[in-house]
């Protein structure tokens, strides 16, 4: 099954299997045909946003975009820190999909 065919529920199931210790990362790679890089991204998204992180979004609100730019320009934060600080408390997907 290709990554484009994975549903949000499937991704959450895989991550929860890893998080609760039922399987390791390498077992998930073999069993589900997902790369370690993809699993790492999913795990980070799950850690930051929970299940809501896997819901599709069409766009970000203008206010959120502006706040992220202002945080970056005036806060001395790295792009990653801006995403983490902006996305996590508001439960917004930091990767756009």
From TrEMBL:
Residues 11-58 form the Insertion element IS150 protein InsJ-like helix-turn-helix domain. It comes from the Bacteria. It comes from Paenibacillus cisolokensis. It holds the Pfam family HTH_28. Transmembrane segments: none annotated. This is Insertion element IS150 protein InsJ-like helix-turn-helix domain-containing protein. InterPro entries: InsJ-like_HTH, Trp_repressor/repl_initiator, WH-like_DNA-bd_sf.
């Amino acid at each position: 099954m290709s990554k484009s065919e994975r549903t949000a529920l499937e991704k959450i199931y895989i991550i929860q299997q890893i998080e609760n210790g039922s399987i390791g990362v390498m077992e998930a790679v073999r069993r589900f045909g997902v790369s370690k890089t993809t699993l790492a991204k999913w795990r980070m998204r799950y850690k930051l946003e929970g299940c809501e992180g896997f819901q599709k979004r069409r766009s970000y609100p203008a206010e959120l975009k502006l706040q992220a730019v202002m945080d970056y320009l005036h806060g001395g934060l790295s792009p990653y820190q801006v995403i983490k600080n902006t996305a996590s408390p508001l439960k917004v997907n930091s990767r756009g999909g």
